[in-house]
């Protein structure tokens, strides 16, 4: 008899399409402190390389070039930035009620300073900084936008600590 063991898969990276790759690399490296592991470069549609063929498989035939850059967070999660010459250069309307990716979340214990820095770089604070469990845990959160209209969330503590019943309980 074969035993099937389930285990939690790790997160590898997130891909984000931005209107200006250089501005996005500047924002995410300077504001978030993410490491630039590959400077912006151009990918051309061609079938003679593995990357070219893979991009045709993913994006289809209706493109000729795009720009790509890779960054990494302090815990090794990749941030893959794309910028296509064709396409809409504005973020889609914020609508968390529709199926699809709603947001991603980053973590910084100094949430006030990070939110202030996001705004100073052209981003937006979407709500006041709020305490999750004000009487039980010192955890805060806030939804923000980058300068390109991409919504994300900031936590002060890890996801596991924020939602586990025993963390910092009285």
Automatic annotation (TrEMBL):
Residues 10-157 form the VOC domain. It comes from the Bacteria. PROSITE patterns: VOC. The keyword Metal-binding applies. Keywords: Metal-binding. CDD domains: VOC_ShValD_like. PANTHER family: BLR8189 PROTEIN, METHYLMALONYL-COA EPIMERASE. This is VOC family protein.
């Amino acid at each position: 008899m074969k035993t099937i063991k389930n285990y939690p898969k790790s997160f590898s990276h997130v891909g984000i399409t931005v209107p200006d790759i250089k501005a996005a690399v500047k924002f995410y490296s300077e504001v978030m402190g993410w490491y630039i592991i590959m400077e912006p470069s151009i990918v051309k549609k061609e079938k003679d390389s593995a990357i070219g063929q893979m991009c045709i498989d993913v994006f289809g035939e209706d493109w000729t070039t795009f720009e790509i850059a890779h960054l990494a967070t302090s815990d090794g999660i990749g941030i893959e930035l794309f910028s296509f010459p064709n396409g809409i250069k504005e973020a889609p309307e914020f609508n968390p009620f529709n199926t699809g990716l709603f947001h991603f979340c980053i973590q910084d214990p100094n949430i006030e300073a990070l939110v202030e820095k996001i705004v100073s770089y052209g981003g937006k604070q979407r709500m006041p900084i709020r305490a999750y469990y004000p009487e039980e845990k010192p955890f805060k959160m806030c939804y923000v936008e980058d300068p390109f209209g991409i919504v994300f969330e900031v936590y002060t503590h890890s996801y596991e600590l924020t939602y586990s019943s025993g963390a910092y309980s009285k």
